[in-house]
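Thread amino acids onto this structure.
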């Protein structure tokens, strides 16, 4: 009789576990972007299976790592992601086809944990994740119990989870890459006008909530029309890309650059006072002064005209007014530069 009761109890436990996996499967199908994956799907797995720690370890060279780094300003993403070189990952996870159960020597596997250190776990399961047949890392489950994995949550169950997560991340990667392309300017790789305006809206609202500074610079290439007329449109595009490359080396990860139209572009500096933004653009100009661009056997000296507006500020109470303030300031700067050029042409 006790044997029968034991069997019935095990069947009930299996039924409960199967239902949890069905619910996770449904959530996986609903997940279309990386933020949802980290902030909702992993949280759902933690709550549904009562697993204290779930995180991703990503191979640094993988395409998924590159996509995740774009959103690493999220605290949740940082707390649930580790990055590891391909060779080191392969040394720790020998078989990328099946989960690895670990209940001792956890220190050996410390590179699989996020930067904030080893979680206080006594057992873990490492489940390799693939995208389009290529191993990109692992999803890891940790528990304070020595025997959680292999008994309550079995290898077949983890293999099922591994396959579903891999499918989910494949779909998410494709969606993220398409979204990224749709939000980018094809010439410079900067945000396009629509995406930049969205970023301004979001950062403006955040600066209001946190009572922080927000600076926005609008800039243009000086004499861009003359570059096109004298050297051709390809030279103008090269000049714009050249300036873009220099800016990319100077700005911080949290700063955003967008192309508004033609040679007009804008930079958004969260938590930054206006004089810091101006100093950064001055550094860009200093580099341009000492590093002319070779075009058609000529050394092309490029300069930029720029102006900065900041919030909070007088009459700057909306994102639109912040952008307008920077544009109006730029027009004044350009008018002043034009007067200086005219003075320089006049005989002494």
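Threaded sequence (348 positions):
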């Amino acid at each position: 009789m006790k044997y029968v009761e034991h069997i019935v109890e095990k069947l009930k436990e299996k039924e409960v576990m199967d239902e949890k996996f069905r619910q996770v499967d449904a959530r996986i199908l609903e997940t279309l972007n990386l933020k949802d994956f980290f902030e909702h799907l992993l949280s759902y797995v933690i709550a549904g299976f009562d697993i204290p720690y779930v995180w991703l370890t990503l191979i640094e060279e993988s395409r998924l790592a590159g996509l995740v780094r774009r959103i690493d300003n999220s605290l949740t993403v940082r707390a649930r992601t580790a990055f590891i070189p391909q060779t080191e990952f392969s040394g720790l996870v020998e078989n990328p086809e099946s989960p690895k159960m670990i209940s001792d020597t956890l220190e050996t596997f410390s590179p699989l944990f996020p930067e904030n250190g080893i979680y206080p776990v006594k057992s873990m399961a490492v489940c390799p994740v693939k995208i389009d047949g290529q191993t990109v890392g692992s999803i890891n489950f940790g528990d304070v119990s020595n025997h959680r994995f292999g008994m309550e949550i079995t290898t077949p169950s983890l293999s099922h989870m591994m396959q579903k997560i891999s499918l989910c991340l494949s779909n998410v990667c494709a969606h993220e890459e398409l979204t990224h392309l749709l939000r980018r300017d094809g010439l410079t790789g900067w945000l396009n006008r629509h995406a930049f305006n969205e970023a301004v809206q979001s950062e403006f609202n955040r600066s209001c909530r946190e009572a922080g500074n927000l600076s926005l610079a609008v800039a243009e290439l000086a004499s861009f029309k003359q570059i096109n007329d004298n050297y051709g449109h390809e030279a103008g595009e090269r000049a714009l890309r050249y300036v873009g490359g220099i800016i990319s080396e100077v700005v911080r990860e949290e700063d955003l650059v967008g192309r508004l139209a033609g040679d007009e572009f804008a930079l958004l500096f969260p938590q930054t006072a206006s004089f810091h933004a101006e100093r950064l653009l001055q550094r860009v100009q200093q580099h341009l002064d000492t590093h002319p661009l070779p075009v058609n056997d000529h050394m092309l000296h490029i300069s930029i005209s720029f102006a900065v507006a900041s919030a909070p500020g007088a009459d700057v109470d909306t994102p639109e007014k912040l952008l307008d303030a920077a544009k109006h300031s730029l027009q004044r700067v350009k008018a002043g530069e034009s007067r200086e050029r005219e003075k320089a042409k006049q005989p002494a």
